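Dear colleagues,

I hope this message finds you well. In preparation for our joint manuscript, I am sending the DUF1828 domain-containing protein (Winogradskyella wandonensis) sequence together with its predicted structure, so that both groups work from identical material. I would be grateful if you could confirm receipt.
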Amino acid sequence: MDKLFDIYQTIKDDFCALTTYKLRGESIEIITPFSTLNNKFVSVFIKELKGKFIISDAGWTDLNYYNVDISEESDDIIERIFTYYQQSFGILTTSDKAGTLHYYKTCSNPKDIPTNVYDLANFVVGAVNSMGIRYKDEKEEKERETFRKDANTFLKVNYNDNVKLQKSLDDFKNIRFNALITRNSDIYLISYVTGSSSYYFTNDLRKTIVNFEISEKSKYRDFIREKVSIINDKADGYHPEKLSSMMDLLNEKVTREPIKWTEKERILEII
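The corresponding structure tokens are as follows:
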């Protein structure tokens, strides 16, 4: 039990403070901060077996534990999406005696568990959400694309070739920041937060919090001068009164108070 709790504590420290857990016999359930479109938090399960750590979804995706209203007419699309996410995150599969499909990753070094939890949780979110998709949320896509272009243009105009868009740190390829600005040996991480509804806005906040927290484990952490979040306070999903606890947590992960888009000139004072 102590070993399982130590694993949880390591994940919480390395992954995200929003992570919780439940003990499940010889396994531990890690309840991640990632949620599906129907507001179900994603869980992954960890068990030590023959000197290896198995990080799996316990068959929950295949069993539709997340209660998604599956869009059967999109089976071929869903299959392609599953394959894409499996390849992107290096996910393996196996079946139990009942024929239930389990998605999993393995590692031998306990230090690699948080990264594998992150990969599997991202896979589950993408896979589960794909099962229920019937149409594009055009409002959200337009909101996100418009803000991304506006923010990108602002940074490009002011920082020219020093800014790289949709860039990851070399040692965490699966984590991308909206922008990465370099000046001499200093690195500035930039993340945008927007959303056409409270759900999308909150999810963007969670992703930003997790990414900034993981960046603290990067081998480049001593070169990271600032971690800056740009908040789209003009977005339909921006409701400060509902976001106070999440914003407080974000404040703990950034080096500066989050910058509202209507006050974007403040960025020029920082970088």
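For the figure legend, we might mention the following. The radius of gyration is 19 Å. The longest strand covers residues 172-183.

With kind regards,
E.M.
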